[in-house]
Input
Amino acid sequence: MAREAFTSERIGPPVGPFSQAVKGGEAIYLSGQVGHDPATGRLVEGGVAAQTEQALRNLSAVLGAAGRTLDDVVRVGVYLTDMADFSAMNEVYARSFSQPYPARTTIGVAALPLGAAVEIDLVAR
Output
């Protein structure tokens, strides 16, 4: 099966040997995004809620490059450095997706790129 990669110029190039998104069959797999501001390359200020909003904006830009939107997402992976931030992340998440919500896993991790509080990856149809 051939792979097709998608990249959004709105968020800047990946900082490693990976694609922002790859289509395999009918699914599009998006690499994790943290809440970095593409204009500055730094994490947005305002804690986990602001970082969640920015990560989802970054993911939306990549989805757009693939001709998709958040409405096409079927699975979400959320990685938090502090599970006490779950509620703040969840409030932003609930505003960003519509019912039926995508399947989701939230995992606590020791650290994330750039010192981020949250990283999110997606699978879309």
